Structure formats: structure tokens, C-alpha cells
């Protein structure tokens, strides 16, 4: 009886860890610059398609290690340039928050249809990062799940280390806490905004590489991820990384068990119910600061 | 504002004299009027009331489905069912608005967008089929609007066009009256300084909830009208490309620059039809267009005209 749930539990844990990585990226950008990126899901697909092009298209030597070495800097550059070109010029305008949402929504439509035109609407599958299973008698855990879990948790830990121990990390925290104060002590605010956007692009793109091997890559597959990342962020609390982590694992479990008991179509309704309940009872989320 | 609106609708009203015989052109004109109302409603709630609602397409689709189901299931004449659909959309609008008004900025956009996102699985799923949405097949037979025995079917498009024009003018006048009334002033005050306006006794909650109800009602009603005009519905309308198309109307027209949204609808619907032979490249171009237009047209066509001709009226930002 409990054994059956072990599979569901492991799937919830693996997905939860990747969701955590991606939700932290989303909360980072909103927490620091108040810009909400509607193209976040399309950046997820970008990671998946980069991996697909490198592995299936070029057949790169070195497998996933080379994919990460090549894709992550590309994603970072893409995020940086995107912020500089289309988000930064809007900051000084009236209603800039809504304009950022509009422009990133346009970018999302552009990117999704670019994938459609360039790669076709058929779903692409990726090989697993490692083969084989860990046989524990009644429970069988695939090595793929373990590697995904380890990689995404290390990604989050690396991010935390950057935030706490490096100059750019401290600059990011300073701008998030008090933009005016940060400017007064000479922190280049614009560069911090671009850097956080670039880091978040890397996080969601890496999430795309990790999850694509389990769930395929498709032109519009990112919308699900955008909604999930956002519900996690709202549930955990905007701007709170720790809250995002707890929320990601809780919602990863919720998704796995709702999917198992009622079917996948109910997952979105369940997430929406959690979202509304959170906003009604505790609008700042589990651990977030309001504002 | 009113003058420009009269010129635009007057110009549209004489169009059938030139293209009345071309069904395809008349269809474009009808769609321009329908989207002009939806875009104006969006402008009212977002540009004037300052509520970042991303649920306008959702309320349009809710209205369309509601009217189709009400007229199909209960045999209520479409002329009345579109008002019922507006009422249903308004009730849902208030239900969505209630939690939203406690929230700020991006949260409102995301909750309303979440309504949009779950509408498709709802309409396609078991619950949707139970109330008669037809699941993923959609609703294939919707009766046309019938007034005193005269049926406004897609076969006589000129008649449908003038009926749409009447509806669009009524809706636009309502929107204009709201902007001109003390509501509009209250919104302007709330946008400039919410705390100060509240201290003067302007209730943000009351006005914002009312505008949620009003825009949802008008959008839902027009959605119902659309359903009876085209005669069939599917969840394809909930795709991101239609949402972005509506957004382009607002960007071209200018946010908070009513009646710019009507101009935006004219340009965008026409452009969208011209792009349709391009197949999959059409949404690609639309997406790119949003990025370029948001960057280059800060206040839309109206703002551009004002900058070129240096009109007397200052922009809203300049007043602030």
C-alpha cells in the first residue's frame, strides 16, 4: 500500500526540486526589480531546445556535461541582452510594470512560435542523463531522478552561495532591500537588474534541460512552468528564497499526489485553489514580506 | 475624446457604402467593432482604473459560452441571452475582483491571468461538458440574434454590421461617461496618490469593484454577441495569440488614451487579417510587433499624434 506511494513521492520530490530552482529565479527578479517576466516559460523551453539541438541535432561529444558547459553561458548572455534591450528602456516610463508584462508576453508569443517554425510542433524527447535504476527490492528509483534532484539542489545551493558570499550577490541583496540606499553607496543598479535577469534565465533554462528529459520539449510547454513557478512564488512569498524552497516541495508533492489520485487535468485546478486560498488567508505567502 | 470617437464611428458607419457587397470586408468591420469594445473595456480597467487585469479575453469567452449555453439549453432568445451572459460575466468579474483588490500590481495580473489559464481545461473537462460546453469539440450550433422576426445571420452582414455598430456605440458612450464622471476623477486621484485620495474619502475598493463589474458585463455581453454572430465556439479563442492581439490594440491605441483603443482595434484587426496568409509566421510577427511597439510607441497613436501636432491637451503623465 505505502510502497505504491513511494513512486509518487519520489516523482514529487524530483519535480519539486526543479520547480524550486525555477521559482527561486522568478522570485529573484521580481524581488529585486519588480519586473515580472511573462516569457519565463519560454526561457524554460529555450533550455530544453538548446539541449535537444546539442544532443540530438549536433550529437555533441560529452553528453549532458557539454550541454551544461555550452548552454548555461548562452542562457546567461541571452537573459542579459534581453533585459538590456527590452526591459531596461521601459523602467523610466509611466505604467512601466504593466508594460514589462506586455512586452515579455509579446516576447513569449514570439519565442513559442519561433520554436514552432524552427523545430515543428512535434514534441522532442531527450535521452536520460544517466541510465539504470537503483533496485531496493520493493522500490525502484531511477538514477535519472537522483541526478536531477542532486543537480537542482546543488544549483540552489550555488545560487545561495553567490547571493551571500560574492560582491554581485551582496549588491543584489542591497538593491532588493533598498534601491535608493544602494544607489547612494554607488551600486550600479541597472547592472544589478540585468545580472539578476541573466541569473534567473540560467536557472529556468537549467530547469528546462533537467525536466525536458522526463517530459519532452514542445513549443508551448513553457506556460505550465510559468504558472507553476508563479504559484510557488506566491505561495512561498514573493522575494523569499527559503519560502520558495518549501513551497516548491509542497506543491511538487501536491501535484504528484493529485495527479496520481485524480488525473493530471486536476493539477492546475488544485494549484489555482492553493493560490486563491493563500492570497485570501495570507497574501504575503508563507514567508514573504509584503510589498 | 467624444469628438474623436464620433469621427471614428462615423467613418466606420459609412464603410458599407463602399464595401457593403464584399462579405469578407464586412466581416472584418464587424470584428473591428467587437474588439473595439473589448479593448476599450480593457483600457478602462487598466489604463484608467489602474487595475492590472489580464482577464478580459477570459470574460469575453465566458460571455460567449454563457450566452450560447443559455440560448441553446433554455431556449431564451439570443437578444436577451447576451444580457444574461453579461450578468454572469459581471458576477464572475466581481468574484475575481474581490480577492484581487486586496492585492497589488503584478499579483492582480497574475490572478486574472490564472483565470484565463484554467478556463480552457475547465471548458474542455468534465465540469464544462456537464454544463454544455461541448468539451474540446466546442459548441457548433448557436442561433443568430433575432429581433421582431428578423434574424441577424452571417448571410446579411450589412444588417449585422449596423447592429454591432449600435452596440459598440452604446458601450463606448458608457465607457466615455464613466471616464468623464466623478469615477474617472476618482481613478485619476487614486493613481496619483492612493493614500491621499483615501484620506479625502475616495473609496478605492468601491470604485474598483464597480469597474470590475462594469467591464466584465460589457465584455461578456459583447462576447455573447460574438457567439451568436459566428454561430460556433471553441476554446481556441483562449490561445495566447488572441490575447496578444488584443494587447496590440491597446499598445497601438495607447494605455489610458481612450478612444485610442478603438483606433488600435481598427489597425490591429486589419493587420491581423493581412497577416493571416502567413500561417505560423503570423503569431511570430505579432509577438515581435508587441516588443517593437511597446518600445517605440509609449502612448500609442494618440500620444504620437499629440506629440506631432502638439495638441492642447497634455498627456496624463504631464498632468501628474
Note down, in words, how this protein is organized.
The complex is a heterodimer of chains A (291) and B (320). Chain A has 291 residues and is mainly α. Helices cover 76% and strands 3% of the residues of chain A. Chain A has one domain. Chain A contains 11 helices and 2 strands. In chain A, strand 1 and strand 2 form a beta hairpin. The model of chain A has no long low-confidence stretch (mean pLDDT 88). With 320 residues, chain B is an all-alpha fold. Chain B has 16 helices and 2 strands. Chain B has a two-stranded antiparallel sheet with strand order 1-2. In chain B, strand 1 and strand 2 form a beta hairpin. In chain B, helix 3 crosses helix 12. The longest helix of chain B is centred in the last third of the chain and has 27 residues. The two termini of chain B are 19 Å apart. The C terminus of chain B is likely disordered. At the A-B interface, helix 4, helix 9 and helix 11 of A face helix 6, helix 12 and helix 14 of B. Chain A: GO terms for molecular function: transmembrane transporter activity. Chain A: This is Amino acid/amide ABC transporter membrane protein 1, HAAT family. Chain A: It is a multi-pass membrane protein.
Amino acid at each position: 500500500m505505502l510502497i505504491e506511494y513511494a513512486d509518487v513521492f519520489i516523482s514529487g520530490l524530483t519535480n519539486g526540486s526543479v520547480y524550486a530552482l525555477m521559482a527561486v529565479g522568478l522570485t529573484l527578479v521580481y524581488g529585486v526589480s519588480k519586473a515580472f517576466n511573462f516569457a519565463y516559460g519560454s526561457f524554460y523551453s529555450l533550455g530544453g531546445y538548446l539541449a535537444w539541438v546539442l544532443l540530438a541535432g549536433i550529437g555533441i561529444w560529452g553528453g549532458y556535461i557539454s550541454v551544461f558547459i555550452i548552454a548555461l553561458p548562452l542562457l546567461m548572455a541571452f537573459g542579459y541582452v534581453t533585459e538590456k534591450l527590452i526591459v531596461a528602456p521601459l523602467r523610466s516610463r509611466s505604467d512601466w510594470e504593466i508594460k514589462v508584462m506586455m512586452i515579455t508576453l509579446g516576447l513569449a508569443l514570439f519565442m513559442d512560435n519561433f520554436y514552432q517554425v524552427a523545430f515543428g510542433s512535434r514534441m522532442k524527447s531527450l535521452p536520460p542523463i544517466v541510465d539504470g535504476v537503483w533496485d531496493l527490492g520493493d522500490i525502484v528509483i531511477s538514477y535519472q531522478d537522483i541526478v536531477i534532484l542532486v543537480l537542482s539542489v546543488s544549483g540552489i545551493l550555488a545560487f545561495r552561495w553567490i547571493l551571500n558570499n560574492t560582491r554581485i550577490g551582496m549588491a543584489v541583496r542591497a538593491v532588493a532591500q533598498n534601491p535608493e540606499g544602494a544607489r547612494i553607496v554607488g551600486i550600479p543598479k541597472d547592472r544589478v537588474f540585468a545580472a539578476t535577469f541573466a541569473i534567473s534565465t540560467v536557472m529556468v533554462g537549467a530547469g528546462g534541460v533537467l525536466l525536458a528529459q522526463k517530459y519532452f520539449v514542445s513549443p508551448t510547454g513553457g506556460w505550465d512552468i510559468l504558472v507553476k513557478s508563479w504559484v510557488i512564488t506566491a505561495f512561498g512569498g514573493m522575494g523569499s528564497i527559503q519560502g520558495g524552497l518549501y513551497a516548491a516541495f509542497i506543491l511538487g508533492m501536491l501535484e504528484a499526489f493529485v495527479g496520481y489520485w485524480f488525473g493530471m487535468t486536476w493539477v492546475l485546478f488544485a494549484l489555482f485553489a492553493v493560490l486563491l486560498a493563500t492570497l485570501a488567508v495570507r497574501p504575503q505567502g508563507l514567508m514573504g514580506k509584503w510589498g | 475624446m467624444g469628438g474623436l470617437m464620433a469621427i471614428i464611428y462615423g467613418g466606420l458607419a459609412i464603410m458599407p457604402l463602399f464595401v457593403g457587397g464584399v462579405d469578407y470586408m464586412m466581416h472584418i468591420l464587424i470584428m473591428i467593432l467587437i474588439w473595439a469594445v473589448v479593448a476599450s473595456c480593457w483600457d478602462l480597467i487598466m489604463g484608467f482604473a489602474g487595475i492590472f487585469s489580464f482577464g478580459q479575453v477570459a470574460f469575453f469567452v465566458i460571455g460567449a459560452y454563457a450566452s450560447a449555453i443559455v440560448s441553446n439549453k433554455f431556449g431564451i432568445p439570443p437578444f436577451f441571452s447576451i444580457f444574461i451572459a453579461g450578468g454572469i460575466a459581471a458576477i464572475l468579474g466581481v468574484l475575481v475582483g474581490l480577492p484581487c483588490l486586496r492585492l497589488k500590481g503584478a499579483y492582480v495580473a497574475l490572478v486574472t491571468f490564472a483565470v484565463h489559464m484554467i478556463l480552457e481545461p475547465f471548458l474542455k473537462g468534465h465540469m464544462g461538458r456537464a454544463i454544455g460546453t461541448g468539451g474540446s469539440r466546442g459548441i457548433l450550433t448557436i442561433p443568430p440574434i433575432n429581433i421582431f422576426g428578423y434574424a441577424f445571420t452571417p448571410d446579411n452582414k450589412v444588417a449585422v454590421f449596423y447592429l454591432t455598430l449600435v452596440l459598440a456605440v452604446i458601450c463606448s458612450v458608457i465607457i466615455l461617461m464613466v471616464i468623464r464622471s466623478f469615477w474617472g476623477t476618482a481613478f485619476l486621484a487614486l493613481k496619483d496618490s492612493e493614500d491621499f485620495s483615501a484620506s479625502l474619502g475616495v473609496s478605492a475598493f468601491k470604485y474598483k469593484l464597480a469597474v470590475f463589474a462594469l467591464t466584465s458585463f460589457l465584455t461578456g455581453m459583447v462576447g455573447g454577441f460574438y457567439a451568436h454572430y459566428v454561430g460556433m465556439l471553441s476554446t481556441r479563442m483562449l490561445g495566447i495569440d488572441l490575447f496578444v492581439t488584443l494587447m496590440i490594440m491597446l499598445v497601438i491605441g495607447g494605455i489610458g488614451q481612450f478612444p485610442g483603443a478603438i483606433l488600435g482595434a481598427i489597425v490591429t484587426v486589419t493587420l491581423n487579417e493581412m497577416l493571416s496568409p502567413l500561417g505560423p509566421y503570423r503569431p511570430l510577427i505579432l509577438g515581435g510587433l508587441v516588443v517593437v511597439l511597446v518600445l517605440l510607441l509609449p502612448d500609442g497613436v494618440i500620444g504620437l499624434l499629440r506629440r506631432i501636432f502638439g495638441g492642447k491637451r497634455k498627456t496624463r503623465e504631464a498632468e501628474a
